[in-house]
Amino acid sequence: MLRRLLLIPGFIFLFSGYTQAQVLIDSIKLKEVSIVDKPKPVSRTSISVTLSEKQLQQTKGSGLAETIKEVPGVSILKTGSTISKPVIEGLHGNRILILNNGIRLEAQQWGLEHAPEIDPFLASRIHVIKGAESVRYGAEAIGGVIIVEPPSLPSSAGISGGLNLIGASNGRSGTTSGMLSGGLKSLPGFGWRLQGTLKKSGNVRSAEYYLGNTGVQELNYSAAAGYHTAKALYEVYYSRFGTELGILYSAHVGTREDIDARIAIGRPLENYEFTYNISAPRQKVVHDLFKAKAHYDFIDRQSLDITYGFQKNQRKEYDFRRGDREALPITDLILNTHTLDLVFEKQNLKGAKRLYGLNGIFQVNNNIPGTLANTFIPNYDSFTGGIFLIQHWLKNDFEFEAGLRYDFKLFDAAGYRYANNGDESSEITEQYYGGQSRFHNVTGSFGMLLKINRYWQLGSNLGLAWRAPTANELFSNGLHHGAGLYEIGDPNIKTEQGYKWINTLKYYGEKIDFTLDAYAQYINNYIYSEPDKIFRQTVSGTYPIFRYKQTNASFFGTNLSGTYHFSELLSYKFNAALIRARDLDNRKYLPYISSDRVDQHIHLDFQFKNLNNAWIQAGHSFVRRQTRYEPESDYAAPPGAYHLFQLSGGTTIKVGEQELGLNLSVDNLFNTLYKEYMNRYRYYTHDMGRNITIRLNYNF
Amino acid sequence: MNKLRNYSLAILVALIALTFNACKKDPKPEVPEEEIGKAELTFLEVEREEHGDHYHYNPIAEAKPAIITFDSKGLPPVGTHLHLTEGKTYKLTLKSFDFANREMQQEFLEKHDIHQAFILGAPDGILTYVYADRDKENKKISVGVTGYLTVDEHTETGFTFRYVLRHLNPGVKASITAANWNDINFASKFAGANDLDLKFELHPVHEGEHEH
Predict the structure, then answer these.
(1) How many structural domains is chain A composed of?
(2) Which of A22, A116, A660, B33 has the highest CB neighbour number within 10 Å of its CB?
(3) A149, part of any domain
């Protein structure tokens, strides 16, 4: 039976479109434990959470990190109100992997102030894997994987589409996003899709004051086409993500004296008005992605997937500069990435399957000359090659998966920097640096899923994941403009290896369902930067020096989420996350680990006259103060605990044959003035005040 | 299978072509033009003449300037110690030099909406400073490239005189008045970064007091 259940969605995915799958689902009607409308691109033994199209609808208009923050164990690392990075169980940046339509996102993700270049409007589903699944997905999946999955291409004639209009009060933002897809009568099996998003937002407001220079503009678009025959599927895809965003004026700091003085006040003293204008400091990022994929089915349930991806990431950062140089980027980088993935899958009659995989990544990073400023990271070529084998076994109530992988990485860097030759008192000289580094790594993983009975399910996943040090960790040397610190890399840094064991217990009852995750992670050679006790003296003052170092670190945590159904219409949902992280070598706490948090809400579905699927929801979040921190490695103590309240509601209205979706939400209902520990600009400002968002959605 | 082979081959050829015609470029050293190379502060005695609620400052023909130089770290020569005399007024002018040793203080005047100097370090009541900059239309502006420093009192020992030229964040300058010239809370009140932070030892003395 299980084999059949696995095969059915697989068949649907390969040979038909989403619409057909949806029909199948509607007819199955398995509440919560449904065998899904189309197969997840995630192994069933992975510890993962999927956000459905309906759930995504409620957060539309937000960035990727905000979109997935309701997943238990996911939090956000913010740099002001304009930049958000997703954090999975304490890890972010190069320690988590983001797959955009099957291609690993390769950008300058090492930067804490670099948000992922993905338009969440693209997604019909988002999967968050919390295990360290490097075997399947490759290096950097130490903390987890985020998979952004677009809708399947249609395979039959006709045109369909959807339009989203979103307006938000805070920042007076407006977002329009549309999607159009169709097929050709003359060419069955052919499908296409066009999608685009336009967003503009101005200065956002904390509860009491505007945050100067926090506007955002975004223009994203994508096009896809595919063709399938009985035994093959071909797809090409192109997307562009383009954004320009302002960096809070008040966070621009110079010397340590500036930083201390600003922190003592804790909020800007300048008054800024509302504006859509974005000026320096600002970022301008364009990310292009091209993908070509072919899938072939052979006899005896064997198949082959070949996926090629090309990404071009161009990042320009503009800072306050002297003279007329503000129009010149202070950082100007182009990163080109080619990826090639080959996966051969073999399934036996009992449903067990084996995957053989081969990955190649080739990257070229170049600084574009003419910034008239020190380059922060070098030019480099990087080649990564990996092979893997995954075996999946299937019994009636039990599934087991084991995988093994070998990776090789060659990293060849070259750059110029200005160094003191190790002597802080000597004059600064120009130095050529770089060279080749080679990294080898063997990773492995085990996963299992046990269906205890119709109510209980237990999953467990043990993974070893790795990542090579990034260019900035190896070679950065210079003033991090706007952040007021010198960062110095270490070319001898070794690879980082993370062992993560995560377990999940699920219960699906009549009235109650819940999921309890518990995980433990040990990271060998954890790379971090720490303030040196040395300051760098310049004509404009003294700056603290941060050096990259390695230690061993541990992460323990648990997430609990559950729903209690009072009736068919009224339910209560609860979500809590707790994490404890330690630097084991130095017996210290690690910085930027989310504090304990609880979210809860009451949800009521109702029918009212012509309104269909109407609902209203009242929510509350409580975030504790982070008490586990090291005073000497942070500028200021973590901010206090806070409570936030939220109110939202939605309905659908019949418009002819179609339905118009309407959704209204009020975040930070009581306009609370608060600061969040995971916001790197908490030193200088408060977080966002009340925000009223209205979302209209029309599908045809 | 033949078809498969053809397609796979096409993809591989395209990949190889894309991959191997593009490697990293040889890095070019950037001249960090942002950095200010050196700076100079000049103290030239002038005559202060009272005109109702303000003063006029007249040159003194035989006055000799005292020039303090600062290197790229903002440090003066070792042992720098300047004496200024109680009751006298000095025209204080800044010269700064860019990475190529070109004078660039004019830039601060051109962008006077985001630059202002603060004169710090003196105990209360010892010094008075008045901004004396002019923009292109000869209108008075407060930057501190030129100003008049009056020694109101002498001190027993010297102190560290500090000249900070602030590169202010947008919108900040509007809240600064000429009376803020010695505001010790400049870093918290007037957000921005320092373009120059120059320090040396200054000792206001009595007229006729010997050098030491």
Answers:
(1) 1
(2) A116
(3) yes
